[in-house]
Amino acid sequence: MDALNAELVPLEGGHTGETFLAIGPEGPSVVRLYTGAGDRRGPDAANIDAELLKWMRGLLPVPEVLEVRRPDAALGLPALLVTSRLQGVRGDHVLGSLDSGGRGRVAKELAKILVRLSLVRTPRWGVFAGADLRMAGSPDLWRDLEAFLKSDGRELTRGWSARERAALQRRAAEAQELVDGDPASCLVHGDFQPSNLLLDPDRLQVTGLVDWERARSGHRYEDLGRLLRAIPDAAFRGAVLEALDSLEEALGLAPTNQRLEKARAADLFALVERASQRSSHPEVKEAQHRLRELSQ
User: Are 86 and 208 within 8 A, CB to CB?
Assistant: First the structure.
């Protein structure tokens, strides 16, 4: 399809303003234009996202890649990715209307997705640097969070009290120990939260996992940590953790010790990484606020 000439309707969710529902003669599809945040990821961004979706197709509920184009500077055209439109309702729109039984069923569904991601093992930590999914090194903060906070991260805590900075350093030391003690790497979605999940509101099954632009090879509890941070309901968080225990037992995997602590530790790294970005993006501000809350 000629995505740039189709009728494009902005899709709800996210803050990039780069994702649209395309209405064309062949039916609806989803178009991602790499103009702002997407363009800053480099000319391979659309191809990286496309290859990730092809890799996960059949393992996870991801859309089919229909078309991908690199940017054309001569014509002033951005890169774009066209995918099929998945059925379902955003998870954050569904969860609030469910009773405890329904939320328990969704918790089991999310646990299945998390386990599948954790089983996609990768050789080392890193970000995807090309359309062939080769990896570049992971950010320095993942190697030594304490050192990062004392150097590159100093701007992050500007205006904080000495007590707050000391509290964050203590949390960083504890998180580093937990992460270093469980170094296995796997595919990480990078923004695993209800707004990036589509659900069938009747069967309460996951029909889609979308927005893969932050995907990388990282710690196997990053996605769990992000999910738990996004869910204010303690009972639902407990149901997700219980479902993960049951799945590991059913699969014959070794039981995980300190799962919650490891997830929170990995999420602290992700929070610092996000909060340290020089951006007015609402999620950057949210991460900065959350870090200061944790340091009270």
Answer: yes
